[in-house]
Amino acid sequence: MQNWMALLPASRHDVEDGASPPSPMLDAQHLGWWALQFTPRVAQLEEAVVLEYRASERLFGGAQALRARLSDGAQRQGAAAWAFAPHALAALCLARHRLNAGPVAAKDATPDASTQALDALPFSTLSALRPHAGTLARLGCRTLGDVRALPRGGVSRRFDAATLRALDQAYGLSPLPLSWLTLPEVFDERLELPGRVESAMALLHGARVLLHRLCAWLAGQHAGVESFTLRWHHGLRRHQAHSGQHTVRLSSPSRDVERLAALLSEHLHHVTLEAPVEELSLRAEQIAPLVAHSHSLFPEQGGEQLTAQPGSLLTPTAQRAQREALWTLLDRLGARLGAERVQTGQLYADHRLEHAQRWQAALPTSPGAQAPSVAQHPALPPWPQPSWVLEAPMPLTMVADAQGLREHPHYQGRLHWLAGPHRVEAGWWDTASPDSACARDYYLASSPGAGLLWVFRARHTGNTSAPAWFLHGLFA
Question: Whole-angstrom Cα distance, residue 175 to residue 168?
Answer without folding.
Answer: 8
